[in-house]
Amino acid sequence: MFATSSQRKYWTFSGETELAQLRKEANERYIKTHGTKINEDSWPDYFFTVPEERVLCRHFEFLLKEFCSRFQPPMPKYVLGTSLCYFKRFYVHTSVMDYHPKEIMLTCVYMACKVEEFNVSIGQFVGNLKGDREKFANIVLGFELLLMDKLHYHLTVHNPFRPLEGLFIDIKTRCKKAEDIEKLRKDAEAFIEKSLASDACLVFAPSQIALAAILSVTSREGINLDSYVTDVLLEGASEENLKNTIYQIKRIKYMVKAQEPIARDQIQRLQRKLQACRNQDNNPESDVYQKKMEEMFDDEEENRSRKRARYEEEEEAETRELLGV
């Protein structure tokens, strides 16, 4: 249940102001760590600003959505919702300069497929990509543990699509004035998909987003569900709870409606800028990263050899003891 979930406890924030502050802190941490060899006066031109990070993140959120919509076999909507939620969570506390959004985007989708039990192999997954599929597979598998760590292993995501279905069933059962509600399903789902492009999943409960979707599309069709919400859905709720619910619905509608277009004219410039200022330790194509991975594999092989030698010694000692030698 969402009320007792890690999503509510650790990944639901007070609003866009808090999110902006956390993203600003992540940006400043990166610049402070990697700006020691660069003149401070050059920082604004060399490193990303917080608004620039948001532009690039939104661009890759759009690409993530496009990738999911074209995926074969067809991907359920809740896998898209979980993927975007992972991606947004990742960049709350991490700068795009530290980890490239392209690599994290693919890893988020692959992880969501696993968690949501949409079973596809890594071969099937990268088969939906153009280019060097072996390289993509290595990147996704290489960043999988990192992603889980950055999400603090809170992998269960409560999406608005499920409560939306519950609301449709409830309205058809207990609200006679909205018997034709089913014809508005696509519009309601479209509202939720649009909400995924905002920070709504980091601020509001999934049931609130679903209710906002229903009320938005019904009001547009001239269907008044006020009595259903106050007298049926929230029957027995205090006046304070009713006011708070109405307030949250208004906030969601505003957040979804007020989204600005992605500044696509900036994307190429930002991509070039990212190539210069990104953390090469986390760039799979850099010599630094490849050397780090080789050292890690060498260490792992050395540890395995030590364990194997120790096991053989213990086995030999047990044999001598058994034979009384």
Provide a brief overview of the structure.
With 325 residues, this protein is mostly helical.
Please give a structural write-up.
With 325 residues, this protein is mainly α. The chain folds into 3 domains: 2-157 and 263-280, Cyclin A, domain 1 (Orthogonal Bundle), CATH 1.10.472.10; 161-257, Cyclin A, domain 1 (Orthogonal Bundle), CATH 1.10.472; 286-323. The protein contains 15 helices and no strands. The chain has helices at 6-10, 16-34, 43-46, 50-70, 77-90, 101-115, 122-126, 133-150, 161-174, 185-195, 206-220, 226-233, 239-257, 267-277, 287-323. The radius of gyration is 25 Å and the shape is globular. The termini are far apart. The mean pLDDT is 91.
What is the strand and helix layout of this fold?
Elements: H1 6-10, H2 16-34, H3 43-46, H4 50-70, H5 77-90, H6 101-115, H7 122-126, H8 133-150, H9 161-174, H10 185-195, H11 206-220, H12 226-233, H13 239-257, H14 267-277, H15 287-323
Helix pairs in contact: 4-5, 4-6, 5-6, 6-8, 9-11, 10-11, 11-13
CATH superfamily of the largest domain: Cyclin-like
Q: In whole angstroms, how far apart are the ends?
A: 62 Å
Shape: globular
Task: Report mean pLDDT, rounded to a whole number.
Answer: 91
Briefly note the CATH topology name of the largest domain: Cyclin A, domain 1
Using the 3D structure, state the CATH architecture of the largest domain.
Orthogonal Bundle
Question: Whole-number radius of gyration?
Answer: 25 Å
Helix content: 55-70%
